[in-house]
Amino acid sequence: MTDLISLTNVNKYYGDYHALRNIDLTIKTGEFFSLLGPSGCGKTTLLRTIAGFEGVSEGVVMIGGKNMAGVPANMRPTNMVFQSYAIFPHLTVAENVAFGLRKNKQMDKLQKSEAVDQALEMVGLKGFGDRQAHALSGGQRQRVALARALILKPKVLLLDEPLSALDKKMREQMQVELMRLQRHVGITFILVTHDQEEALVMSDRIAVMFDGEIGQMDDPETLYRRPNSRRVAEFIGKMNFLDADVKSVSDQITVDVAGLGTCTVNAEQAPSGIDTGKAAVGIRPETLAILFDGEKTERETIAGVVDEVVYYGDMTYYDVRIAGVDNTLNIAMKNLIGRPVLDVGAQTTVVWDARSLVLLP
Ligand SMILES: Nc1ncnc2c1ncn2[C@@H]1O[C@H](COP(=O)(O)OP(=O)(O)OP(=O)(O)O)[C@@H](O)[C@H]1O
Ligand SMILES: [Mg+2]
């Protein structure tokens, strides 16, 4: 894959407010790239600077090897999809999709109508062309908005929280459909979302943003398994934190962990440049376990007391108190056949493994 988009040292000020801080990123042709972060961190602003709806205060935006300084949005090879409300309710589905082609002089009526049919088929709305747009479900409207963007055959499709108006089931269905569509058409997608699960499911790579800055940029698995800071670890999935004291650093790192004692971890379990001294250790709930009666383990164990039980049907999340730690440990357990759901106050054995610890500065 070749670089399609590159941002170099991009800064954006609104008056005194520093909305984007030293953004450096490259996005490859055909990549599914997501911008993830809490409300107000600058995701939409960053997307708008790529689209050309917003100029940059400093830095360079390149698309397809061309500097975009002074290039207006309608002259860029990008197209933006907003939330479902952006379609025209008084037009038919086909008229909505054809809207972007209205100024196209190269295509005749027949070609345009064929292009509309093709775009509708791509988004699973074949045969819906004559339907009034107001007579569609939220998910169908979202597909119309997508078809309207796809018909222009942009090199880059910019999607700003396109699924946030949909209910959970529909959102999950659309996530899978969007992924399939992206692979099928080979267009580069940049998705803005504040939903970490959505970003993990859909993206080739994710940039996690806080306060106008990129905190970490990686593929989903690396982000989840090897967050480089506490705030990234906290934002993506659930994470337990324990106080830690790093004793020595080489290929292996020796660290005293509150409640667990002295542990040895591999260097790859820590961000590069970690030093001796105070740190934190992160442990994902699903890498801890409760040892139920009759189960055996080769791994490390520690005694605990159940403090809270949250039952999800397929899973139960336990908060378990262990000696020497103020906060409880959250533990995710599958409700396998024969496993009881424990009560608050139950004495338990917690299973842990040094390989799942993540050292954080
Ligand atoms: N035109 C503007 N003038 C002044 N401040 C702005 C302007 N547009 C955005 N901001 C500010 O810049 C910051 C980033 O806004 P942005 O819309 O990019 O956030 P976001 O990450 O998309 O948030 P959300 O998830 O809520 O949509 C916010 O604090 C916002 O108030
Ligand atoms: Mg936004």
Description:
The chain has 361 residues and is an alpha+beta fold. The chain has eight helices and 20 strands. The strands form four sheets. A six-stranded mixed sheet has the order 6-7-8-3-9-10, sandwiched between helices. Strands 13-12-11-14-20 form a five-stranded antiparallel sheet, with no helix packed on it. The longest helix has 18 residues, at 168-185. The model has no long low-confidence stretch (mean pLDDT 93). Adenosine-5'-triphosphate (ATP) is lined by residues 14, 17, 19, 37, 39-45, 194.
Helix content: 10-25%
CATH topology of the largest domain: Rossmann fold
Largest pleated sheet: 6 strands, mixed
- Low-confidence parts, pLDDT < 50 over ≥5 residues? none
The SSE order reads EEEHEEEHHHEHEHEEHHEEEEEEEEEE
